[in-house]
Every structure is written in C-alpha cells, then in structure tokens.
Design brief:
Strand content: 15-25%
Radius of gyration: 19 Å
Shape: globular
Low-confidence stretches: 1-10, 67-71
Helix content: 25-40%
Number of strands: 9
Order of helices and strands: HEHEHEHEHHEHEEHHEEH
C-alpha cells in the first residue's frame, strides 16, 4: 500500500495546504517544533563565502527555533517547544524541524546523534531538515535513508530561484544542476522533498517567478514553500534597499504573483507556505507583511474572487 505522500490526492479549497496533507498523512493535528542543531553554512564559514546569502539574517532563517548546540539538548528543546504550543494541541503529534542554517552541514556521526534524538519520542511523527542541495554527500544520503525507515524524513531545499543572475546576486553559491541532482538523489530515500522559493527577488518579474515554481515541480519536488521576500535588518539586502536599488512588492502585487504560481503548480504538490513570517524586530520591509492575519485573509479573498485554483494551467 502506498503512503499518502506518494499519492495524488484530491483536496478541498483552492490549494493543497500543508494542514490538509498532515491530517491525511497522520490522521490528527500536527505541529512543527523548530529546533537548532548548532550548525553553520558553507556560505558563512569561508568554504564558499563568509557573508551568507544576501537576505539571510544572523539567525540563519531560524529566529523561531529553540536555541541549542549540543546533541544532548535536543530533548530539552523538544520539551520547551511542546510547552509553548501546549494550548494549541491536544492528543496530536509533532514534526521535529531542524530549521536554522544548513542542517546537514556537519559530520555524519553528529547528524545521526541529533536526528536520532529528535525522532525518539513517540509523539514525534516525522523529521524535517532544512538544508542546501550542495550539502548532501553520499554518507548523509545513506543516513537519511536509514532514518526514513524509522519515521518519515522530510528534506527542505533552499532553491529560491532558477535564474543565474539572481542566484549570483543573492550569493546562493551553487548552480541549478546541483538542485536537480539533489532532488534525484533524495527520491526514494526520503518521504517528502520540499522546495523553498522566494517571490519578489530584485530584478525578477512575474514570469521569472512562475518559471521557477514550474521548474521545481518538474524536477520532482513534493512540496513548495512560497516565501515573500523580506528585507531584514542587518543583512546586505537591507543595505541595497536603503540605497534604493530595488523596491519590495505591494500586497496586491504579491497576491497576483502567488495566484499565478499556484496555477502553475500541479494539484498534488503540497503548499507548505504562502507567505512566511519575518521577525518583527528585524523586519524593514514590506511593512504590510507584519500583519499575518490580514495578509492571509487578503490572499484567500483574492484567490476566491479571481476563481484561482492550484493546477489551473496544468490540467
């Protein structure tokens, strides 16, 4: 019998949401618990660069994670994270999510300690790992495959864009073939591959962004995180924004782009994120993105009014 994440399932609503997928996959409410494995990134330790990606804050996109850098702290991080969502969940399950920086960028022995500790609790239903496509050597792939035999393993790959000029500007540090090879290597080894794409990168138009999500779908991703570009304090992107080198999207523009991207994605692709949250203490622009409830309501109203459904242009 096939697992739910290997099937093309019908869904209600205008897109195949993560919440729908989780309920079908696990049969209950599931919360992500963001953890910190204490890792860095080849874009920060001097292997590729020391500055990080141009949009990346000091927390490595993990400002919401529990902080810790020792293998024996995973249980403590899980306990604290569970406590913080205890009012929202009853008799549910959790996904242990290693979010900050590049979470396969360490010796495989270290990774095995961290990941094994994270999946041990009975109420942890799956392991989710954010990483880069160029940080998946053979021994790490073998580890992921072994862990996936115990509990489902999800891998989140930061693609952001398929366009080489933009990739160079944001200092991504790997070429497009690296992404497609990573997806190919992960297929059959892990349960779910998620691709992270940023909408609104400087110099890109709506066609460029739609091409990126369409490419990721054809490459074999199972899920998508569609992320509004946030300008965060302390980043090189914030310096370029202050100099007037680019403008950020309006909410209306973002809704239009998001609608086009959803239409270009096949119906079986799980939408893990529609916009994303920038830490309010770091957020420079766009200011409207700080009101999450308003943003999501506006997006859903736009999709309804325009009669937009995921996969409209794929059928």
């Amino acid at each position: 019998m096939k697992l739910f994440d290997e099937m093309i399932l019908p869904y209600t609503g205008r897109y195949y949401s993560l919440n729908q997928y989780l309920r079908r996959r696990f049969g209950c409410k599931v919360y992500k618990l963001a953890l910190d494995g204490g890792m860095t990134c080849p874009n920060r330790d001097g292997t590729l660069d020391t500055r990080g990606c141009i949009f990346c804050s000091g927390g490595g996109s993990g400002e919401f994670a529990q902080k810790g850098c020792r293998a024996d702290s995973v249980a403590e991080q899980l306990a604290l994270a569970k406590q913080q969502v205890s009012q929202k969940i009853s008799n549910g399950k959790y996904i242990a999510y290693f979010q900050s920086f590049t979470n396969t960028y360490a010796p495989v022995s270290r990774l095995e300690e961290l990941f094994t500790a994270a999946i041990c609790p009975p109420d942890v239903a799956a392991l989710s790992i954010a990483t880069r496509p160029d940080c998946l050597p053979p021994d790490v792939l073998s580890l992921l495959e072994r862990l996936n035999q115990i509990k489902p393993v999800w891998i989140e790959l930061g693609l952001q864009t398929i366009h080489p000029d933009t990739a160079a500007y944001i200092r991504r540090g790997y070429d497009l073939d690296c992404y497609t090879q990573a997806v190919r290597a992960l297929k059959g080894r892990v349960s779910h591959i998620i691709t992270h794409v940023i909408l609104g990168l400087p110099g890109e138009n709506i066609e460029d962004m739609t091409e990126t999500v369409r490419f990721a779908a054809k490459a074999g991703t199972d899920g998508m995180k569609l992320q509004l570009l946030h300008v965060l304090r302390g980043t090189d992107l914030a310096e370029d924004y202050a100099r007037g080198l680019f403008s950020v999207l309006t909410l209306e523009e973002y809704c239009e782009i998001l609608g086009r991207c959803l239409q270009a994605l096949p119906p079986h692709i799980v939408i893990h994120r529609l916009t994303g949250d920038g830490p309010k203490k770091l957020l420079v622009a766009p200011e409207w993105s700080g009101d999450k409830k308003r943003v999501l309501n506006t997006i859903n109203r736009y999709l309804e009014e325009k009669n937009i459904r995921q996969g409209d242009t794929c059928r």
